[in-house]
Amino acid sequence: MAPTLSMPFRHLVIRRLGVGDASFQNHPRTWSVVSSSALRFSFSHRLHPLSSMTTPEASANPHPSAPTKTVKVVVKGRVQGVFYRNWTIENATQLGLKGWVRNRRDGSVEALFSGDPDSVLEMEQRCRRGPPDAVVTGFSVISCNDDPGTGFQRKPTV
Known about the structure:
Blueprint: E1 13-16, E2 30-34, E3 40-44, H1 56-60, E4 69-78, H2 84-94, E5 98-103, E6 109-115, H3 117-129, E7 135-143, E8 152-154
Parallel strand pairs: 5-8
Antiparallel strand pairs: 1-2, 2-3, 4-6, 4-7, 5-6
């Protein structure tokens, strides 16, 4: 039986395991529960993480009008030949974003990210650093309304 918030804990704190936590990559939907008595356990939840706290009306439509942010980024520097596109696909997929990434003939990398505003912002921050062998010297972000598609994909060079 998965623990719920109705358990008799005082000062109950729930947080999602972050990127720095060792189990995050293997269990992206793992949540950590900590009580004031220092009891700690984790559980996985297949539905919306706060569904046990919502009303039946809210459960019928868990994301009534979830805000979506879409941006186009251009990354300059040593960003081609260092697996920047593959790294971008892995990170965007991990964050649940839609969109695409492609090389440009001028040596830069262009990408479109669409999804939860916090996830898009996190992806922007990750792209400013890039994969280990990349050297990012320029980075621009432009809000847009382009269609991101259904997943995250690599597009041909333009």
